[in-house]
Amino acid sequence: MSLVPTLPTIPEPTTLTCIASVNEARAMRIAEILSDFRHLQHAIANIRANPSAEEYYEEGYCVLRQCAAEAQALLNQPFDCQGPEPDGDGEQEKAQLQRVMLDASIRRFKIQQIYLKASAALRWLTSRNAILGGNRPQPIHTPALQQIANTMRAELASVTPARVELALRSQDSIQGKWLAEDPTWSTMEQSIRTGR
Questions:
Q1: For the chain: N or C, fewer Cβ within 10 A?
Q2: SS3 track for the chain
Q3: Which stretches in the chain have pLDDT values below 70?
């Protein structure tokens, strides 16, 4: 019997433990993406604009209704969780998490795009209310109303995939989130085209 204590053997990190820890990071990233998605959905759902009958078809109100409809349609789409159950297999779990991350990223991308458009329409509405001051539009208001309509159109045109991707990546980078496997817009676009 030896009086020298034996130290426990520390196992070398294996590929399996590395996959497991990266899969945990993937799962956390999915939770962050879905949290962003829910937050933006909630913000869009809480937009309240009550146009009068004569204002109902004004461009900004139409944009707000379209944004609300698109957000609802996106919410109603089933999530893509296809594929075999991982059953403890790290590689299968990785593949499933990557599919879910792609689906969640597409949803967040689309809702961010919708949110930016709704924000432009809300700025139009705020400016319109400031111009009209609670009164009905008069000929004297026409130039100012035309200007805010043009501004809104320019803002809507600027909501490009590149701008949305940059906004999301910048926000995530500032918050120090793990972005190593976030899909790019081109990856998401390809997935959308093939019917994800």
A1: N
A2: CCCCCCCCCCCCCCHHHHHHHHHHHHHHHHHHHHHHHHHHHHHHHCCCCCCCCCCCCCHHHHHHHHHHHHHHHHHHCCCCCCCCCCCCCHHHHHHHHHHHHHHHHHHHHHHHHHHHHHHHHHHHHHHHHHHHCCCCCCHHHHHHHHHHHHHHHHHHHCCCHHHHHHHHHHHHHHCCCCCCCCCCHHHHHHHHHCCC
A3: 1-20, 80-88, 196
